[in-house]
């Protein structure tokens, strides 16, 4: 194994260890009463004001998803959580009249998404039959964090949340009006009780 690969693995170990301990973490927006909701709305902008480029280079505005719940995933092709592609594809097929799933490939956790846009697309379709919308590879944290993930993780923009993805397949839930309502760590799936409760 090359020294650079070993070094990259060693650098990722602390993050990976922490992700194992927090794999089922869930956080949700404060204020379930009218006063709390009004304060949250006043503080935040809408997810619907954002846009992102798909794997084939097309720009999509998030306002086209108004009226539906949105699940945002940071995904990778060589991760222990990669089989979740099948879970989220099945969930999307069952609920696509009221929910959209958006996948954002990221190579920041263990170098587990090193492929090109074409390779990622072929992998997802061949192995998991993914039909939900996939976007270009992005950074979900750090100096080159994408504007969309900046919104998801900056309380001054989303109103409350500062949770940054700790590993691949973390999830953010946005409601029909473009407000961020929940963050879920990597281990949470569509069948998890906390996720089902959030979708009610």
Write the element-wise H/E pattern from the N-terminal end onward: HEHEEEHEHEHHEEH
Q: What does the largest sheet look like? A: 6 strands, mixed
Q: Percent helix among the residues? A: 25-40%
What is the domain tally? 1
Radius of gyration: 16 Å
Strand percentage:
15-25%
Average pLDDT score: 88
Write a structural description:
This protein has 200 residues and is α/β, with parallel strands linked by helices. The chain has a single domain (3-199), classed as Glutaredoxin (3-Layer(aba) Sandwich). The protein has helices at 3-21, 34-43, 84-95, 117-128, 147-153, 155-158, 193-199, and strands at residues 26-28, 51-53, 59-61, 69-75, 99-105, 133-134, 171-174, 180-184. It has a six-stranded mixed beta sheet, with helices on one face. The protein has a two-stranded antiparallel sheet with strand order 2-3. The longest helix has 19 residues, at 3-21.
Brief summary:
The chain is α/β, with parallel strands linked by helices and 200 residues long.
What is this structure's SSE topology?
Layout: H1 3-21, E1 26-28, H2 34-43, E2 51-53, E3 59-61, E4 69-75, H3 84-95, E5 99-105, H4 117-128, E6 133-134, H5 147-153, H6 155-158, E7 171-174, E8 180-184, H7 193-199
């Amino acid at each position: 194994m090359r020294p650079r690969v070993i070094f990259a693995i060693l650098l990722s170990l602390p993050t990976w260890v922490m992700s194992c301990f927090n794999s089922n973490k869930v956080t949700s927006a404060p204020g379930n009463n009218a006063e709390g909701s009004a304060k949250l709305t006043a503080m935040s902008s809408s997810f619907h004001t954002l846009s992102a480029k798909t794997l084939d280079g097309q720009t999509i505005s998030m306002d086209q998803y108004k009226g539906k719940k949105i699940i945002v995933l940071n995904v990778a092709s060589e991760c222990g959580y990669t089989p979740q592609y099948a879970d989220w594809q099945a969930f999307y097929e069952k609920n696509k009249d009221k929910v959209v799933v958006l996948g954002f490939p990221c190579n920041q956790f263990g170098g587990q998404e090193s492929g090109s846009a074409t390779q990622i697309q072929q992998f997802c379709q061949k192995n998991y039959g993914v039909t939900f919308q996939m976007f270009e590879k992005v950074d979900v944290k750090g100096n080159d964090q994408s504007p969309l993930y900046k919104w998801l993780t900056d309380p001054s923009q989303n109103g409350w949340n500062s949770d940054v993805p700790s590993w691949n397949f973390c999830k953010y839930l946005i409601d029909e009006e473009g407000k961020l309502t929940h963050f879920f760590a990597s281990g949470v799936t569509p069948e998890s009780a906390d996720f089902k409760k959030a979708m009610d």
